[in-house]
Amino acid sequence: xxxxxxxxxxxxxxxxxxxxxxxxxxxxxxxxxxxxxxxxxxxxxxxxxxxxxxxxxxxxxxxxxxxxxxxxxxxxxxxxxxxxxxxxxxxxxxxxxxxxxxxxxxxxxxxxxxxxxxxxxxxxxxxxxxxxxxxxxxxxxxxxxxxxxxxxxxxxxxxxxxxxxxxxxxxxxxxxxxxxxxxxxxxxxxxxxxxxxxxxxxxxxxxxxxxxxxxxxxxxxxxxxxxxxxxxxxxxxxxxxxxxxxxxxxxxxxxxxxxxxxxxxxxxxxxxxxxxxxxxxxxxxxxxxxxxxxxxxxxxxxxxxxxxxxxxxxxxxxxxxxxxxxxxxxxxxxxxxxxxxxxxxxxxxxxxxxxxxxxxxxxxxxxxx
Length: 369
Prior knowledge:
With 369 residues, this protein is α+β, with helices and mostly antiparallel strands. Helices cover 40% and strands 16% of the residues. The protein has 2 domains: 156 residues, Type II secretion system, protein E, N-terminal domain (GMP Synthetase, Chain A, domain 3, 2-Layer Sandwich), CATH 3.30.300.160; 162 residues, GAF domain (Beta-Lactamase), CATH 3.30.450. The strands form 2 sheets. The protein has a 6-stranded antiparallel sheet, with helices on both faces.
């Protein structure tokens, strides 16, 4: 039995709530339970109980996680803990030959075996919801969560998304207050050299192949990966953003060498709600091409700094991906030494339209499965 079926059978959620969570799962990723909690339909305690009933494993409670043995945490190590989404809790029994381990996927026998090998002990799996595991992985090992999993400052029906005290950091609920949007014409193209990419880097994927990849994508990651691959050889930087609660969250990206990212794309969180190229494309639901609308360019400067962009581009391209007239992604791109060419604008716009169609197809499939 699947989690959604169990929750429906026990009247813990309604069909419309399940469909909304499945839709969010397609668009934003994460497990179904994560999306149900983020939407405010259930809380972590109820989710834990149903996961335990569904999988037959004991629950890794907050008390057990708070008391996790430091020696075992050190023995597993942060890299393997995050890769396997595993948190050693402590030894079971006086013999100290078996370790209780909280796992997001306790039925994954390969992951359990890898944890057992690292710890040099038998493992008894405990179930822990994804959101709770990511919070404790950050708390116990110090590696920050990706921006997508930092829970919003607002939740469905006005409820606090941080129930249970497990929300150390939040995205600002509505972005920062910034000057009102302006409409400016792009400045005349610089009299400068061609883009450093021109004639130097071959394209990683043809436009036709990128269209086919998005049209036949079987999951959201394939869509994002295609945008990143398309960027190579065509622009100096491209970032695919997730749009959630007034923020643009980094998802996938690419920068042309020799530039090196200063921080992982997934850690980017930029505000919407003021004058920026991202905000303009988001609000209009149409591509933005030209000079960023705010003279100070606070949002763009944050992005350029993260992308190690030098010099700052005078013109950028932002293409929204819409699902039911709402932007769920923004695809940002720039060339340092020239304005975005017409072909780039046209092709990214078509890829965004195809992404919309694929999202809707994936949502229908998720609801029907």
